[in-house]
Amino acid sequence: MFRQVANRLLTRSTTTYSAATIRRPYSTEVATDAAAGDSDFVESWKKVVPNIDPPKTPIQYMKPRPPTPSTLPSKLTVNFVLPYASELSQTEVDMVIVPATTGQMGILPGHVPTIAELKPGLLSVHEGNDVKKYFISSGFAFVHSNSYADILAVEAVPLDQIDPAQVQKGLSEFTQKLSSASTELDKAEAQIGVDVHSALNSALTG
Amino acid sequence: MAMAALRREGRRLVPLVSSPRPINAIQSTLAPAEEQVGLGVRSISTQIVRNRMKSVKNIQKITKAMKMVAASKLRAIQVRAENSRGLWQPFTALLGDTPSVSVKKNVIVTISSDKGLCGGINSTSVKISRALHKINSGPDAECKYVVLGEKAKAQLIRDSKKHIELTMTELQKNFLNYTQVSVIADDILKNVEYDALRIVFNKFQSVVSFLPTTATVLSPEVVERESEAGGKIGSLDSYEIEGGETKSEVLQNLSEFQFSCVMFNGVLENACSEQGARMSAMDSSSRNAGDMLDRLTLTYNRTRQASITTELTEIISGASALEG
């Protein structure tokens, strides 16, 4: 009887979710890689609780990254992820320019491994003659030695979807709030608003 | 003979019915109804069976409706959970996965649901949390709980009340989004001292399969310690740090960001698993209600026919007594 239930649910799931999402691959990337997981963990688990199966860990759900190649790769593999979507996933590009807190940083294949903190600003992805520009709120960027770049941001908007009039309005509003702010918290919030809006402004114009 | 058959079938029904309580209650009160037949009360027992049938049919309707609701909620949230899966992968690629790290202050963050009737996923999470607690508490290591969700709170409060630091419920009342989760993460980071945070949740693999998972987030000091000691995070030193004043400031931000990202994914996956588990629990419950309804219909017909036969034999024996 349970087999029928399972079959029925599975066939329903395949027909209902067939038109679903771009990110289908992840749900099938389970339990194939690093299948044993962290062996120390499994050992210590079995010693204390032999009856229950140990839980899985995130590394078992991930495709392993390729090791550092000996020759310089020609393309940079970029993963640009947001909480709501993976904008770019394993996309091969020529160059990426990220707004690090120390200024705009260009990442080319063969870049030195880096952990960069990002500030609100312009992110541009260069592929051949194609340039895609996004405005991102802050985040992090990791560059690995195998020419993989991971860019994580909390929010990202393609530049053409930003309304310049709103940006100006926001900028003046926050500058006013900053000058009239009394508590430290208010001042900090207003300062953040001013920073973001001025970055938006310079991204739109520059 | 009818009684014995029903009792036999009733016993077979018991292991199949898992969560829905009302069906068990009905089944246990069925036996007394049968005994009343033996005492010679005829029409009342068909009434009782009819009442049982009505309530079982209502339960079947309700569970079917709950399954539809869970299916539609699952569709909506599955898309978001799959989209958020890219978020934690860069961290694992950078820092590796270290569930076996041994530190002094462990904090176990258990993610569970607020509503019930979702199968065994909350009990699984609590079992795993308790086992992790057992592994990680020792003479020089302490282990505390942070509980998200009503169900795990109810279970953990029974025996580990003094280890619970913080509880949060009603997460899904407002639409789950990253801002809400980062506020929660901020709350936890501010109020709880930790060296390692272990997040326990059920990862959604498919509609019928949910894998209990634990993700480990280390505090910046432990990350530095582990990277110096070599091992999995050993290559962290080869990374240049851009931005911020000092390396430790960037690592601090990194660790906090990692925690909120992993929590966001964990909360979404757990919500998905909850809806999927509820769907299959309600599905098996309506199937069981259907089976029970069939059996009750048979009993009803049997009882009805037996009472008709009894009346007929009375009349006939009365008539034959009058004649001869």
TrEMBL record, chain B:
Q: How does it sit in the membrane?
A: Peripheral membrane protein
Spell out the PANTHER family in the cross-references: ATP SYNTHASE GAMMA CHAIN, ATP SYNTHASE SUBUNIT GAMMA, MITOCHONDRIAL
* Protein name, per record: ATP synthase subunit gamma
Q: Which UniProt keywords apply?
A: ATP synthesis, CF(1), Hydrogen ion transport, Ion transport, Membrane, Mitochondrion, Mitochondrion inner membrane, Transit peptide, Transport
What does the similarity note say?
Belongs to the ATPase gamma chain family.
InterPro entries in the record: ATP_synth_F1_ATPase_gsu (IPR035968), ATP_synth_F1_gsu (IPR000131), ATP_synth_F1_gsu_CS (IPR023632)
Looking at the keywords, is Iron present?
no
Keyword Nucleus attributed: no
Subunit composition? Answer: F-type ATPases have 2 components, CF(1) - the catalytic core - and CF(0) - the membrane proton channel. CF(1) and CF(0) have multiple subunits. F-type ATPases have 2 components, CF(1) - the catalytic core - and CF(0) - the membrane proton channel. CF(1) has five subunits: alpha(3), beta(3), gamma(1), delta(1), epsilon(1). CF(0) has three main subunits: a, b and c.
Q: What does this protein do?
A: Mitochondrial membrane ATP synthase (F(1)F(0) ATP synthase or Complex V) produces ATP from ADP in the presence of a proton gradient across the membrane which is generated by electron transport complexes of the respiratory chain. F-type ATPases consist of two structural domains, F(1) - containing the extramembraneous catalytic core, and F(0) - containing the membrane proton channel, linked together by a central stalk and a peripheral stalk. During catalysis, ATP synthesis in the catalytic domain of F(1) is coupled via a rotary mechanism of the central stalk subunits to proton translocation.
Superkingdom of source:
Eukaryota
Q: Which PROSITE patterns match?
A: ATPASE_GAMMA
Which Pfam families does its entry note?
A: ATP-synt
Q: What is its main location?
A: mitochondrion
Give its localization.
Mitochondrion inner membrane
Q: Mind naming one GO cellular-component term on file for this protein?
A: mitochondrial inner membrane
Q: What Gene3D superfamilies does the annotation carry?
A: 3.40.1380.10, ATP synthase, gamma subunit, helix hairpin domain (1.10.287.80)
One GO MF annotation is:
proton-transporting ATP synthase activity, rotational mechanism
Q: Can you name the source organism?
A: Cynara cardunculus var. scolymus
